[in-house]
Structures are given as C-alpha cells and as structure tokens.
Amino acid sequence: MPNEQRQGLVKRQTLTETELADIEQLTDICNNDEGLHTRLSWLRTRPRGNETNDFLYYEDDTLVGYLNVSSYGSQEKELTGMVHPAYRHRGIFRALLTAAKEECLRRGVQKLILICEFASRSGQAFVAAIGAHHEFSEHEMFLATFQERNSFEQRLHVRKADEHDTEALTSIIATDLDDIEEAKQYVAEKLLQHNQPF
Question: Which terminal Cβ of the chain has fewer Cβ within 10 Å, N or C?
C-alpha cells in the first residue's frame, strides 16, 4: 500500500525525523526570504512530548506552515510559527493559530505570546491584522571579536547542576515563569533529563 500524501493540518506531540527536517528546511526558506534569524534547532533536543505542541500544515506532501507552542509555562505560552512565502495569504497561519489556541484553551492557558521578529514584514502584518499588540522585546546579542583575557577568576567554579541546586534553580526559573510551583516542576523535570540544558 503506497504512503498516503500529507495534506492540511497535522497535530503532533512528538515530531518524526522527516518532520524535523521539513521544519528546518521551511525555517531556512522563511529566514532567507525576509533576512530573519528564527532558530528552532532546539526541537531536536527537547524531551519527547505528551502534549500537542506542534502544528504542521501540508500542501501536496510539502510542509508549507508550522507553529510551535512552547512546552514550558502553564498560564502563558509562547508561539513561534511561519508560512512558506509562496503560500501566504491563504489562511494557513490563521488555521495553525486557531488549532493552537483551541489546544491551549483546553489546557487552561490564559495568555498566548506570539514571537515575531521586528524584521518580518509578513509577521508584523499578521499580528496587526489579528489585533495583537506589542508587549515587550527581546534582543539578540552578537560577539564580533572575542579577546582572550590573561587572567582567570579563581573564585569562579563551573559545574553541572544537580539536585542540591534545586532551590537556587527554582528561584531563578520562577522569575521567568512567575509561578513557584511550576518552576519547581520544571527544574525537577530538567534534573531528571541529565542531557537537557536549562
């Protein structure tokens, strides 16, 4: 029996290797089209999911749209997505966003944060069209020239975090999540996954 052709909206808890490769290719196309810096390489290292956080949109077996719901946070979620430049203005991102919103509402999420690079004309137009407003900005920093220093701070000790660091890590993570219980759970999960970075 031949493989069925992928078409329309697909929801995933865990992405296949083929889907990851398709997302990377779509990211490259969108980045090159508008000179963006979207990076989703962390999708390959995240733990296997038990919640639907990935929404893919296919036309004739080609991935033309993708939206990811961040796995951290319970009250608010960050959404990152894209649509192939040749397939825009067809309602694809709106369909992805609608599916993600329905999933988030089902899980009790109260706030959705759309990640949109300032340089993305299409992204900025979309968020304006749906009535979203700018709340805050994050900046990307680049080190153009690294200069090795001759001295080393002897008081600085670097080691891998372990269960003895739970309280300190929880305190730091809670400043971002704004929920101490959720931060405790997040830290506990990360400490169990020894190869996962904070």
Answer: N
Task: Give 23-69 pLDDT, tens digit per residue.
Answer: 999 999 999 999 999 988 888 888 777 899 999 999 999 999 999 99
pTM: 0.75
Residues 198 and 180: their CA atoms lie apart, in Å, by 16
- 192 burial via Cβ count (<10 Å: 0-12, 13-18, 19+): exposed
3-state secondary structure 117-145: CCCCHHHHHHHHHCCCCCCCCCCCCCCCC
Q: Which helix (H) or strand (E) holds 59?
A: strand 54-59
CA-nearest of 191, 194, 173, 167 to 72 is 173
Q: Are residues 177 and 93 in the same domain?
A: no
Domain that holds residue 66: 8-129
Q: Does residue 136 belong to any structural domain of this protein?
A: no
